[in-house]
Structure formats: structure tokens, C-alpha cells
Predict the 3D structure of the following.
Amino acid sequence: MQSIETDNVTPMHRKRLFLYFFILCSCLAHALAVPSNRIFTPLVHTLQTICNGDWMQQPVVVLDSDDHVTVSFDYFSHEYHRLCFHLVHCNSDGSPSDLMQSEYMEGFNDQPIEYYLNSLNTTFLYTHYAIDFPNDNVSLKVSGNYRVQIYDEESSAVSSDEQPNYKGHPVLAEACFQVLEPLVTVSASVTSNTDVDTYASHQQVSFRIAHPDYAIERPGQELKVIVSQNNRPDMTVTDIQPTYIRPGMLEYEHNKNLIFHGNNEFRRFEVINMHYGSQNVDKIDFYEPYYHAVLMPDAQRRAYSFDADHNGRFLVRYNLAEDVDTEADYFFAHFTLGLPYPLEGGTLYVAGCFSNYSYSDNYRMLYNPATHTYECAVLLKMGAYDYQYVFVPDQPAKKPEAVFDGSFYETENEYVISVYHRPFGSRYDKLIAVETVHYSQE
């Protein structure tokens, strides 16, 4: 990254600001072995997994229930492409399990996605695809993690780290969801009175797993517990061991691995109509042939800033549409962040669920020395968005040291606890509990 000389910035100032910005992040979400949505081609946008039509709900369906999860995305073309899905059962770390297809599903895999509609009156021409799981042709037989690979059956590809393939066809995207077999119950809490500080910059998660009627012979070897903050792969803790083991009860308390930086609330903006700006939007202009939304300039936040955010999520919205999936247009969102000089030792990104927390060039902030701002333009679909600025060190530390925008105990964060069980002799990880808990000052 380019650096500039400034007469009024001392080395100590640089060090302090660097520490303030520093956050542990991985450049690739899958390197952390945590399941997450991924897109491998610029032709696919707005990949979502929504459970029971509720965008604020975790993409988790209960086994043998009426629940369903919808995988949807836009493909930038009005021409027909035979896009197919391949459903994979995965271990707790996101790697493929040892189960054969007939052991984890009934029905037909590798089928074309039958629901697709072309966009209407949009500057970007796209086709909206959607498929539900389970459906009339596919039923799921076991709990655990599932990955939906979307591939183009009419194209061929060579395998690469950047874009995998399935049987010689390029995988365009991967969507993840979970199937729950509720065999135990989890009770959880979050407190700002932590084992490292009190009412300062951290939050600590504690929980209990009650299993009075379910046998867990060797919890330390059979259980895999994963705790994630705001669905961020880079804010996830794995391999958590119980503090106390009692008959029918496992307690996870005073565990320093379950202490998280509180961070600050997500920033937000809305573009729900191309004729006028909305929340945190300075102006919307049309430069042939596309729309551009210039967001209000952001600045470093040195104190806690309350906002009723959605913990990083986004919602596609167009206030005049009858069918938002096909009538909402795309636009370039222009982000700017004022800083007196460029950061050293890493790269700054704009991030959220809209980016799947993928720290790629599409979301990289570049420093403009003429305006003393970081800038980035991201192609997004009309709607409401949460976002953060995330600094990714060139040589990330093993644990988070500090966060951009500060870290405060007041921040309302969402924590998801997933409990997997693999009894001795089993060949896959059962998902036996999922619990969501929020930190709130109320």
C-alpha cells in the first residue's frame, strides 16, 4: 500500500492509530474452516440463504419439520443458462463428510434450478434464481452442515483455488445452511463483566448444555462447539471444552476463549428508490448507463455509537416494486472513510453479509492522498445494508488485539452457538443444538 510523508504525524501517533485499527481477519473465510457462503464469479450477485422467509433468522431448518431454507442469487444475463445444484453434506468444519449421497438425502441431486425469472426495467440485466431445501424432489435424512454448489452444466472449467469445479463444470457459488436435530438444550448469556475487564471493551459468552435423556459419553472428544459473533467467520471460536462436567449437564463458564471484543455497532445505509436518497445517502446520480449512490462520508469513531443495526445483514428492498427479486436494480455504492494518512502493514476493506466477509479486491478500500480518504465502489442491489470497515494485517496475529472504530461493552452483538456430536464409531457430525443469544444493556 502506498504511504505518504506527513510532518505532523509522529511514529507514536502512527503506532497508536495502527493498534486502534488492528483486527484479526483472514483473507479467505474458508481458511478458518467455518462454513460460509462464497461467490467465485462476477456473474453472480446477492447470494442469500433465508429460512422460512425471515431474513433475520439463522439459515437453520429442523429435521423432519415444515421448515425450509431458500437459496437465491442473481446471474448477470438474460440468456438461459442451465444452472444446477449439487448438495453436499459437511462436517462441523465445513469439509465434506464421509457419508454417501444416499445416506444424507433422498431424491435427485445435480438437477437444474427450475425457478428463474428475468429482471424487469433494470439497468443491469440479470436472471433471478431460487430453490428451496427440502423440496418435492429432495429430502434431507440427517442433521449437520450442508453446502449447495451452484454450477453451470453447459460450461467446462479447470480446477483452481479461485474457482473450484464439479465434474469439470465451474462452480459459480456455494451457499451454506444447517439442519438441526434438537437432542439437547442450550441456555446462554452474554455479560460485559468478563474475566479480563469489567464494563470496558469486551463481552463474555457463557452457556450450559443440558442432556438428561441423551448420552454423551466423552464430551471432550465427541462434542464440537462453535460460537460465532454476528455470523462473521473471522469472529468465530471453535474447539471449546466444557469447564464443568456434571450428570446430564455441561457448563461452559469463565472460559477466556469465549471473550470477544465488543466492537462498535454496524454502520447502515438504504437505497430503496433511485429517485431520492435515504438513510446515510448523500445523493444518487445516473451516469450512463448505471446508477451511483454516494454515501455520507464516514469518519473514525472514538466512542460507542448506538444504532439499531441488523448485525451485518442486508435486505433487498424497492419501495415501488411488486416483485423486489426481479424489479430491484443494481447500483454502485461509493464508500469514503476519512483518515489523515494511509494505514501501514495491511489492507482496509468494507465488509458485511453482502460481501460474505470475503476480503477480496471487490471490497478493498484504496487511499486517495488528494482527499485524505479511503474510497471504494461496490456493486449492490437496492436495499438496506449494514457494513463495517475491517483492517486485515499482512501478518495477522493469532488473536484479535483491537478493532477498527473501537471496542465497547455496550455494543449489541449476536452470538450463535452450534453444538455438534459425533459418538464413537459415527461417520458424521450431528447438529444437536443451535442457540442464538444477544448482548443487550436492557
